[in-house]
Amino acid sequence: MFENRLDDQELSIREFAEGLWAAFSKWREGQGKGMPQTGGDGMETGLLHGWLEPQDALRKEEFICRGDAARILHEFMRRELGEADEEDWGAAKEIKDLYDCRVCVKHVAQMVCKGIMTAKDGVFARGKHVTCLEAREAFQRLWDHGTRLAADKKMVLFRELENTPKKLTEEEALRTLKECGNVQFWDVRTPGEFAAGSPEGARNFPLLQLIAHPEQAASDLETPILLGCDGGYRSEMAALRLKDAGYVNVSYFGWKS
User: Fold this and answer.
1) Per-residue pLDDT at 159 exceeds 50
2) Where are the alpha helices (DSSP H) in the chain?
3) Using CA atoms, how far apart are residues 254 and 97, in angstroms rounded to an integer?
4) Torsion angle of alpha carbons 135, 118, 109, 206, nearest 10°?
5) Phi, psi (5° rounding) for residue 89?
6) Whether the predicted pLDDT of 252 surpasses 90
7) CA dist 249 → 184, 220, 221 (Å)
8) CB 3.0-4.6 Å disulfide test: which of 159, 206, 219, 253 passes with 173?
9) d(CA 54, CA 215)
10) What is the spatial distance between Cα 139 and Cα 81, in angstroms, rounded to a whole number?
C-alpha cells in the first residue's frame, strides 16, 4: 500500500480509494475471508458500493482533504464493515471547526468519536491534505479496533449537567409542541430541505445561520426553544450553540428522513 511513498507525501482521491480497497483486501485475506467479486479497482468498487460519490471520480486526481477522507471512511465503515454509528458522539462536539461544513458534520463526528481520525487542539482541519501515514493509520483503525485511539486521548465533551440541552424523542417533541403554547420551534435544515417538507409548526433557521446569529432564536433567553432536523445531528449542534449563547430552555430531536 503506497509502496515507495514517503510518510508525509500527500495522496490523490484515487490513490486514497485504491489504497483503502487494497488494504481491506489484504486484511480480509489475512483473516481467511473471501472478497466480494467486483471486477474493479478501489475507484470502481467504491462507486459501485456507495462509499465513493460521483464527484470523487470527477476529482480523482486532486489531493484528498481530511473532510473527504472522513466521508469516505465513514461510508466504508458502514457499507463494507457493517459497523453502526455511535449514538453518543460527545467526543467530537467540542471541535471548533466541526460546523464549517454541513455535509461533513456527521462523517467527521463519527470518525473522531470512533477513534479513527483525530482533531488536534480542538481543530479537525477539514481542508488539510491527507498524507500516506495518516491514511495507513486510519485504514488500520477501521477494522482493527485495538488500534483505535483510546478514550482518554479523544476529545471529550465537558459540560455542566445544567448546561446540557435536552434530547427528546420525536413523540416527546410533538407532545411538547401541543402542551407548550409559547415554544419556538426551529427546523435547522437548509431552506431547500425545509421547503420539501417539515413538521407542522416549524419555522426555518438553517444551522450555519443559527451558529452565526444565535440571538435571533428568541428575544427572551428563557423562551422554550425546540430544534429539529432529520437524524438529530444538526439540531443537537444548534442546541449546544444556543446553550452557549445563554438560552436556558433548549431541547432538540431528530426524525427519520
Assistant:
1) no
2) 13-30, 42-49, 54-58, 66-79, 105-113, 132-143, 170-179, 191-195, 207-212, 233-244
3) 22
4) -100
5) -110, 40
6) yes
7) 10, 10, 8
8) 253
9) 39
10) 12
Was domain 161-255 assigned CATH 2.60.40.10?
A: no
Report DSSP state, residue 234: H
Distances (CA, A) of 11 to 28, 65, 104: 23, 9, 19
How many residues are there in the chain?
Answer: 257
**Grid cell for residue 149:** 485511539
Q: Count the alpha carbons within 13 Å of 78 in the hemisphere toward its beta carbon.
A: 16
Torsion of CA 125, 131, 132, 133, to 10 degrees: -60
Contacts of residue 54, defined as CB under 8 A and 6 or more positions apart, other chains included, come to 47
Q: Which pLDDT does position 156 carry in this prediction?
A: 42
What residues does CATH 3.40.250.10 cover in the chain?
Answer: 161-255
Q: Say which amino acid occupies 159.
A: R
Span 104-122, average pLDDT: 87
C-alpha cell at 206: 438553517
How many C-beta atoms lie closer than 10 Å to residue 230's C-beta? 15
Of 127, 133, 122, the closest CA to residue 104 belongs to 127
> Scanning the structure block, which residue is given the C-alpha cell 491527507?
130
What is the pLDDT averaged over residues 108-131? Answer: 89
pTM confidence score: 0.63
Q: Are 147 and 141 in contact (CB under 8 A)?
A: yes
